[in-house]
Amino acid sequence: MASSEKLFLRALKGETTERPPIWLMRQAGRYLPEYLETRAKSKNFLHFCYSPDLAEEVTLQPLRRYGFDAAILFADILTIPDALGQKVEFIKGEGPKLEPIRNSEELSKLSLTGIHDHLAPVYETVSRLSKSIPETTALIGFAGAPWTNATYMVEGKGSKTYETIRLIAYQDPDFFQELINLLVEATSEYLLKQIEAGAEAVQIFDSWAGVLPEEQFDRWVIEPNKEITSRIKDAHPDIPVIGFPRGAGPLYKKFVVETGVDGVSIDQTVPLDWAIEELQPHCCVQGNLDNLAVVAGGEQMEAQVQNILEKMSHGPFIFNLGHGIVPQTPPENVARVVEMVQNFDKTAI
Are 262 and 294 within 8 A, CB to CB? Predict the structure, then answer.
């Protein structure tokens, strides 16, 4: 089937589709028993991401179960710092640990040289998926946005307050700009290689965008995302770009208008009526079911799904969550969400 006919890509190109396409962030993940079985075959999480056989398999697993309209490459945003030469480890029960980069001297140890050799297994996974996914399914490539990757690179781990990085961005903006510039370059090249390997759309995850005030948001979120989007569009004008500045609140609109993205993923705190009025006229909107509603299931989940479908499906829209599926999610609840979306008839409302 020609790409232009895939439901997911039609929505991203601004069409109001007969029903919304659906995929879910972290649809390949620990809530699926088959994922856990495959994960057990790898030495560690980075090895998992760099093993095309395993990464392809876990990307395909949720498609077999649920028939999603899009598959997203299985990888991790921290492959970029890892490829640049920063020490990255995933500690069981703790999450990622990195050797912090907090000044120009430490930054000088990182390099773009050889990143594509390092990331070649990821491109191999994309290439395989482009041939193995169903013909009606679109393939999404992805990367972490510069600000979000920088939070891990500077803090050295996940954070709840982001105090170290926020302070450095104020106190040493020259160093921080250097770091962001390096990440813009690496991220752009990474996404372009994924597109060359067969990705039909890309999503840029700026998961921690919501911690910044407007002026800093403009500099560290909007400008880098705009530059990456521009580079992708220069090389591949027809490849849609989805931005996800999670937690951006009213700054979502500014982000959409200034970056030029084709789609924007919204978190569960964004009011639907506001999204319809302020975002949908500019681009396709993707979201925004609360991931914990899917854990709870039942009538409350179904009411939320129905409300989102009824409100958002009169413009370009992709059904998704406000953030990724969490490990404790019952697979049968995901099946119910998919069933409701795939059987939705907007002519009946």
Answer: no
Residue ranges, the chain, pLDDT below 50? 1-3
Catalytic annotation on 128? no
Identify the active-site residue in 39, 65, 231, 336: 39
26 carries an active-site annotation: yes
CA distances from 71 to 12, 28, 38, 51, 93 (A): 15, 9, 18, 17, 27
Q: Please tell me which residue in 123, 152, 190, 252 is annotated as part of the active site.
A: 152
Token pair for residue 240? 């849609």
Kindly state the DSSP code that residue 210 receives in the 8-state scheme.
Answer: G
336 is catalytic: no
- The alpha carbon dihedral of 160, 161, 165, 166 has a sign of positive
DSSP 172: -
What is the pLDDT, as a whole number, of residue 149?
Answer: 98
Beta strands 317-321 and 284-289 are parallel
Using an 8 Å Cβ cutoff, are 151 and 159 in contact?
Answer: yes
Beta bridge partners of 206: 245
The question of whether 76 is a catalytic residue gets the answer yes
Distances (CA, A) of 62 to 93, 195, 221, 245, 325: 25, 22, 31, 25, 12
Model confidence over 135-157: pLDDT tens digits?
Answer: 999 999 999 999 999 999 999 99
